[in-house]
Specification:
By secondary structure, the protein is mainly alpha-helical. The protein is built from nine helices and no strands.
């Protein structure tokens, strides 16, 4: 149960009702992460615009890489809600449940390209923020052939998921199996 009041779609009016209708049309359904923001429709819209730009906008990063980063960050933050949502999205690309489980539990056993492995390491280290100097991460990513735009996009994905994980955890958004059904990934 969320820690704050939320407005469910059936009770939404005006602008929030239109936002919910648009989300349902584009995403297949309204997620709990959307409902938790229902008291501030302007911020909900801005959040979704940022999400769409970072996760679906034109980028040298592949879609699976963005979802992979979201899963790594969310696992590092122990955000079950986001891990489950974005693991499902990642499975649309990987189509291998064991591979996605290893991404969450033991990447040392996971076959990844050098670039993907280093992207995951950056996501993990930046999320934990144990080191204030990430220049070696950036150099390593460049050495794999990633250009600066791809690195920028990766850091934006990592930062975005840290933001959303904290909102989900801080406001008590709960995961349920029913929550996972009906999304357009």
């Amino acid at each position: 149960m969320a820690f704050i009041k939320t407005i469910v779609p059936e009770d939404a009016e005006g602008e929030l009702k239109r936002i919910y209708q648009d989300l349902e049309k584009s995403r297949g359904k309204i997620a709990e992460v959307h409902k938790i923001q229902s008291l501030n429709p302007d911020a909900l819209v801005a959040h979704m615009e940022l999400y769409m730009a970072i996760m679906f906008g034109k980028s040298p990063l592949k879609r699976y890489q963005r979802e992979m980063l979201g899963v790594v960050v969310s696992a590092g933050n122990r955000c079950e809600y986001c891990v489950n949502h974005h693991e499902q999205a990642l499975l649309a690309y990987w189509k291998d449940k064991e591979k996605s489980r290893l991404l969450i539990t033991d990447r040392s056993e996971l076959e990844l390209s050098d670039a993907d492995r280093l992207l995951c390491k950056l996501a993990e280290d930046l999320t934990k923020n144990q080191d204030q100097d990430y220049s070696n991460h950036i150099s390593g990513l460049r050495d794999t052939g990633l250009e600066d735009r791809a690195i920028l996009d990766a850091v934006q994905v990592i930062a975005y998921f840290n933001f959303v994980n904290r909102m989900v955890l801080g406001l008590g958004v709960e995961f349920s199996e029913e929550e996972m059904k009906g999304y357009k990934y």
